[in-house]
Amino acid sequence: MALKNSNPTTTQSWKELTNHFKDIQNINIKDLSKEEHRKEDFSIEFGDLLVDFSKNRITKKTIHLLVELAKEVGLKEAIESQFTGDKINVTEDRAVMHTALRSTSDVPVLVEGKNIKPQIQTALRKIKSFSNKVISGKWKGYTGKSITDIVNIGIGGSDLGPDMIVESLQFYKNQLTTHFVSNIDGDHVSEIIKKLNPETTLFVIVSKTFTTQETITNAETLKNWFLKSATIFDIPKHFVAVSSNLQAVDNFGIDKSNVFPMWDWVGGRFSLWSAVGLSISLSVGFNNYKALLEGAEEMDIHYRNEDFDKNIPVILALISIWYNNFYLAETEAVLPYSQYLKKLPDYLQQAIMESNGKGVDRNGDKVDYQTGTIVWGSTGTNMQHAFMQLVHQGTKLIPADFIGYKQSLYGLTDHHKKLMANYYGQMEALAFGKSKEEVHLELKFSGDEAKINQLLPFKVFEGNRPSNAILFDKLTPRSLGKLVALYEHKIYTQGILWNIYSFDQFGVELGKELAKNLLNKQ
Q1: Where is it predominantly found (predicted)?
Q2: Which of 71, 167, 392, 510 falls 20 to 30 Å from 424 in CA-CA distance?
Q3: Where are the beta strands (DSSP E) in 41-127?
Q4: How far apart are CA 134 and CA 140, in angstroms?
């Protein structure tokens, strides 16, 4: 079934939203917060997750009209199209089935008439068996020693996803040390090599085509380094591949039993749920990797079945569209209050900006409205001492997602209380600010009365700056899976509403082609 194809700005709902925006664009979050049951009416609870979107410049009518827009452009049907294997990646003639990778239901999912569930289960069993061998020490290197280090060689989706998850789940890590090589900058791979012992290192080369310039260059460099102390017959003990190009893998010297599959119906930036996540399974163990998938599946079921006004990814997508297309806010910040999630903003930059950074619609016509938002961020409380000045008092409107956890993993309660006080304090400061009167009183009581007139304008916070609170009980593999899937579904929802294709990325090709031409001329 083809995706419905309609310019959102020509819909009845968009016209109504435009009129509604004119009516309430100067509304103040401080006034809205005085409404009875404001927090309850603008929060969604889903198991161990609470999303509070009450600190936004929205009313019940705003949400109602945004939901009507989602219905009018056929979001419900589009969600079903994804989950049932329709070729929604139209420009590349592919289905988009990362949700099938984490599905535990027995319901068949057909791609080109063939049920893909059995091959997914086979791949998972292979990941489990391989991970267990390496982690237990049964898998030996060429001198009979067990593996101590894993090196993931990939770029883009073959690097950012696994790297982010491994970093985020450091608390659950086993004895293996995991490294990631991505950049074609030779200094990157050279620094990693300094940390390795060829006898105890396992290399995981992740490339669907096995021709990606950065990945193959780095793989060849590591192979040459390895062969300084080993022979070509030792390669099968130390190199495995995640690829669909069996011939190229074989030519490299990797045993075909050590090749894990990649499928056309999984896009790179949504591939950590597949064998691309092998380094995650090696780093934290298969059971934790499976829990990551199960958390994502929970969010999948919620997204597919829940009414839009109670649907977390849909609501967050609609709010983002409200700011992007009506307030013309071009960026949004993702601010995790956990040092473990320091790589999440980088990961989401690829996921969101590569997906929705499109200037033509599904007809191939140039769009005359804003699409993909610019995403950036860092961890709390580090960023409070850095860029938050601009978010609080700058001239730009920057909606922000604050991601927090009720419990810390190591249980340092004093630290965690202070962290969460900052988490809530930042959102309050953004929403409610500090008035001239409050600053006046503060300066008076602090003995700075003489400086009141001079300092007053600099210390006023306008407030009325929006944020969402995304709060989990605890950072676990399962809750992390839920979080990542939440953003994946937000991406797709926005793509449907903007009438663009979210699953191709032709925009990354031209620079690569020109680089290749320049290389050939040298």
Answers
A1: cytoplasm
A2: 167
A3: 43-46, 49-52, 110-111, 114-115
A4: 8
Over 90: is that where the pLDDT of 223 sits? Answer: yes
CB 485 within 8 A of CB 295: yes
Check whether domain 11-92+306-432+466-508 has CATH 3.40.50.10490, yes or no? yes
What is the pLDDT averaged over residues 404-425? 98
pLDDT digit string (tens) for 163-174?
999 999 999 999
Selected catalytic residue, list 256, 415, 451, 512: 512
Candidates 3.40.50.10490, 3.40.50.2300, 3.40.50.300, 3.40.50.150; CATH matching 111-288: 3.40.50.10490
Query: Residue 451: its pLDDT value, please?
Result: 85
Is the pLDDT at 1 greater than 80? The verdict is no
Region 488-496: mean pLDDT is 98
Query: What gap in Å lies between CA 290 and CA 475, rounded to an integer?
Result: 15
Helices (H) and strands (E) in the chain, counts: 22, 13
For the cut 70, the answer to whether the pLDDT of residue 258 exceeds it is yes
- Active-site pick, 194, 366, 385, 521: 385
Q: Which of 290, 354, 488, 490 is catalytic?
A: 354
Closest residue by Cα to residue 375 from 393, 359, 358, 357: 357
512 catalytic? Reply is: yes
Q: How buried is residue 480: exposed, middle or buried, by Cβ count under 10 Å (0-12/13-18/19+)?
A: buried
CA terminus-to-terminus distance, the chain: 48
Q: Which residue has the higher pLDDT, 146 or 443?
A: 146
For the entire predicted model, the pTM comes to 0.98
Produce one character per residue of 413-426: b if its CB has 16 or more CB atoms within 10 Å, e if not: eeebeebbebbeeb
| Number of residues written out for the chain | 522
pLDDT value at residue 445:
85
* 55 annotated active-site: no
pLDDT(450) > 80: no
Distances (CA, A) of 480 to 114, 168, 350, 513: 31, 8, 18, 36
CA atoms within 13 A on the CB side of 25: 13
Task: Kindly tell me if the per-residue pLDDT of 37 is higher than 80.
Answer: yes
Token pair listed for 353: 């900006």
Residue intervals of the chain classified under CATH 3.40.50.10490 are 11-92+306-432+466-508, 111-288
Neighbours of 443 (CB within 10 A): 19
Backbone angles phi, psi at 50, to 5 degrees: -125, 125
Catalytic residue status for 238: no
Q: Are 430 and 400 in contact (CB under 8 A)?
A: yes
